[in-house]
Amino acid sequence: MRAVAIVGLGKTPFGAFQDRDLRSLGVEAGRKCLEDAGAAPSQVEAFYLGNFAGPSFAGQNHLAPYVAGAMGIEGVPATRFEAACASAAPHSSTRIPASPPVCTTWCWSPGSRR
């Protein structure tokens, strides 16, 4: 087992935004994370997205590649974790097979619009 570190963090304000959708919020958080880490989208080797009920509100079941692609992260595994309000828990206990850097975005979608 190798050491893994969180090297960047990005978040958006919490709330209901009538002019924003799930994808735009996820992209904003992901870009902030990459900026904080000093990494480019081309350096990401895996993308993980934890989410609660996103498909019901965004009309999109493949949220991880949907958000990653909008960030310019392409050609790498993109995985969504769905565990209600504990969506970060499965990711934090999962062995990540890709070598760093890895981009992770957690999105909570009730209240967001399509």
Would you give an account of this structure?
The chain is α/β, with parallel strands linked by helices. It has one domain: Peroxisomal Thiolase, Chain A, domain 1. It is 30% helix and 17% strand. It has 4 helices and 3 strands. Strands 2-1-3 form a 3-stranded parallel beta sheet. α1 crosses α3. The longest helix has 16 residues. The chain is globular. The chain starts with 21 loop residues before the first helix and ends in a 6-residue tail after the last strand.
Stretches where pLDDT is under 50 for at least 5 consecutive residues are 96-102, 106-114
Query: Overall 3D geometry?
Result: globular
Widest sheet, order of strands: 2-1-3
Largest sheet data: 3 strands, parallel
Question: SSE order, as H and E?
Answer: HEHHEHE
Tell how many strands the DSSP assignment holds.
3
| CATH topology title | Peroxisomal Thiolase, Chain A, domain 1
Overall pLDDT metric: 74
